[in-house]
UniProtKB/TrEMBL annotation:
<protein>
    <submittedName>
        <fullName>FAD-binding protein</fullName>
    </submittedName>
</protein>
<dbReference type="Pfam" id="PF07992">
    <property type="entry name" value="Pyr_redox_2"/>
</dbReference>
<feature type="domain" description="FAD-dependent protein C-terminal">
    <location>
        <begin position="270"/>
        <end position="466"/>
    </location>
</feature>
<dbReference type="GO" id="GO:0016491">
    <property type="term" value="F:oxidoreductase activity"/>
</dbReference>
<feature type="domain" description="FAD/NAD(P)-binding">
    <location>
        <begin position="85"/>
        <end position="254"/>
    </location>
</feature>
<dbReference type="InterPro" id="IPR028348">
    <property type="entry name" value="FAD-binding_protein"/>
</dbReference>
<dbReference type="Pfam" id="PF21688">
    <property type="entry name" value="FAD-depend_C"/>
</dbReference>
<dbReference type="InterPro" id="IPR023753">
    <property type="entry name" value="FAD/NAD-binding_dom"/>
</dbReference>
<dbReference type="InterPro" id="IPR049516">
    <property type="entry name" value="FAD-depend_C"/>
</dbReference>
<dbReference type="InterPro" id="IPR036188">
    <property type="entry name" value="FAD/NAD-bd_sf"/>
</dbReference>
Length: 521
């Protein structure tokens, strides 16, 4: 019977198979020659003490015990070319995993994506970075794979449904992700590797008889007697089906406006908003690892920090070790920041969203917009930042200590944000209460992480697309919209997910609920 053990080892031992075998041999008092295989089940870093350790959960196979390399394979997807059709709006993680689940359940997905495929998106990303041109349908948020494709690929989730999480991770591995994501405490694929995985998922859907249509923006949702009949695209094409998964992501403002215009129930939802802070990665390593140089066996250090300031949570969000800041506007006349890391996390800078919890009462100045009040609040800050920074894709920027001391930075060094920066007193971007909380919060952060509060850190504004400012209400059991039968609000855009894994899980759940509904008919 294989033996499972929990051990703590140095980073050097954890990264060297021979040294690890030797350590295990001494730990369980079995000769090295008698150890057939050491399988790492889980791996995490313990940096609480000066001597950094790696926590490992291992399964040890000794000679004579049956061992077979685990090979993760895709489900046996059936052909669905002639099956009942389900419309899926959006080809982000929620939409793609909903489509895969529909195929597995014998239903035919018709995926409608307003943006381009992963390769076609690259030209539009280049246009944002180099020419400051924003394509409203193809950008860092819209297109095949959604916002996650070109904005990092973090797979960490706080979801307690671990079985579902494992299933999503295994599907990603079967589609080409590194098996390490099944082991790491905070798994990450990387922006450089995600596009091929996304493309392979799309090809599998099509191979099985599903459809994936790019450059196809939904402009109307057809209903009769509060039941879904289909959709209309921007080309005037009508696509009919009585089941619709709406997985458009949290930046599809036109969809929220369409629902509001058609008097389909939506509601304002609190979200978080702030800045994206960039530090030298070497400084974060020094703070987190308590050493001048992290060495070759430790990864670039992440950080996570939460404070209560002025009765609100202020916290790090989407932290990107060895990463860069990207321009994520979805319309001309606004600027938005986000961050990502390549798979090796080998860039010289680290960045993180530093955001503050908002409350519904904060949106009162926009009350005339009803359920869209939070969205209009968000939009107003993005547009103000665009004006202040020079009406291009440059962003307002300020050195961190200067911001805390309410001083305009005389010079902003070159940062990882390619379109460039404009020195601005950040307090002009945000309402007064948010600026004050940010100032106080950074002072508190500096007390917890010695060295974090520094003028070597550059703040970029705004980090505003943390989650949806709108919730599309649905039944907690059937996942169907409370008013429109056959409409399944899904993922981040509907207010039910917060990242790649949780969105994928939500997509699968919506597909399962549709299959269950059809089975009962």
């Amino acid at each position: 019977m294989p033996q499972e053990i929990l051990i703590q080892v140095t980073p050097e031992i954890a990264s060297n198979e021979s040294l690890l075998r030797d350590f295990v041999s001494k730990n369980i008092k079995i000769g090295i020659a008698d150890i057939q295989q050491v399988v790492i089940l889980k791996r995490s870093i313990d940096a609480r003490q000066k001597a950094i350790k790696i926590n490992l959960k291992l399964r040890i196979y000794t000679k004579g015990e049956p061992f077979q390399e685990t090979k993760i394979e895709l489900p046996d997807y059936p052909s669905v070319a002639n099956a009942q059709e389900v419309i899926v709006v959006g080809a982000g993680p929620a939409g793609l995993f909903a489509a895969l689940q529909l195929v597995e359940l014998g239903l035919k997905p018709i995926v409608l994506e307003r943006g381009k495929d992963v390769k076609g998106r690259r030209r539009d990303l280049k246009a944002i970075n180099r020419d400051h041109i924003v394509n409203e349908d193809s950008n860092y948020c819209f297109g095949e794979g959604g916002a996650g494709t070109y904005s990092d690929g973090k797979l960490y989730t706080r979801s307690k449904k671990r079985g579902d999480v494992t299933r999503i991770l295994e599907l990603l591995v079967a589609f080409g992700a590194t098996p390490d994501i099944l082991v790491e405490a905070h798994p990450h694929i990387g922006t450089n590797k995600l596009p091929q995985i996304i493309q392979d998922i799309r090809e599998k859907i099509i191979e099985c008889g599903g459809e994936v249509l790019f450059d196809t923006r939904v402009t109307d949702i057809l209903t009769k007697d509060n039941e879904i009949e289909g959709v209309v695209t921007h080309k005037g094409e009508i696509i009919l089906a009585n089941k619709l998964i709406l997985a458009t992501g949290h930046s599809a403002r036109d969809i929220y406006e369409l629902l509001d215009r058609k008097k389909i129930f939506i509601e304002a939802k609190p979200f978080a908003l702030g800045v994206r802070a960039e530090h030298p990665q070497s400084l974060i390593d020094k703070i987190q690892y308590s050493c001048d140089y992290r060495g070759e066996h430790l990864p670039p250090a992440p950080y996570s920090i939460v404070k209560q300031v002025g009765g609100r949570g202020m916290y790090s969000f989407c932290m990107c070790p060895g990463g860069v800041i990207a321009p994520c506007a979805t319309s001309p006349g606004e600027v938005v920041t986000n961050g990502w890391s390549p798979s090796k996390r080998d860039q010289a800078t680290a960045n993180s969203g530093i955001v503050i919890e908002l409350k519904l009462e904060d949106f009162k100045p926009f009350a005339k917009f009803g359920a869209l009040a939070g969205m209009e609040f968000q939009k107003s800050i993005e547009q103000k930042a665009w004006h202040l920074a020079g009406e291009t894709q440059k962003v307002p920027a300020q050195r961190m200590v200067d911001f805390v001391q309410n001083k305009v930075s005389t010079e902003i060094p070159k940062t990882s944000y390619v379109p460039g920066t404009t020195s601005v007193e950040m307090g002009q971007v945000f309402p007064g209460f948010l600026s004050q909380i940010l100032r106080e919060g950074f002072s508190e952060f500096g007390k917890s992480m010695k060295g974090y509060l520094t003028n070597d850190a550059i703040l970029h504004a705004p980090e505003s697309r943390t989650s949806s400012p709108v919730r599309i209400p649905r039944d907690g059991i059937t996942f169907e919209h409370l008013q429109i039968k056959g409409l399944y609000p899904c993922g981040e855009g509907a207010g039910y997910a917060g990242g790649i894994i949780s969105a994928a899980i939500d997509g699968e759940k919506c597909a399962l609920m549709i299959a269950e509904s059809l089975h009962k008919q």
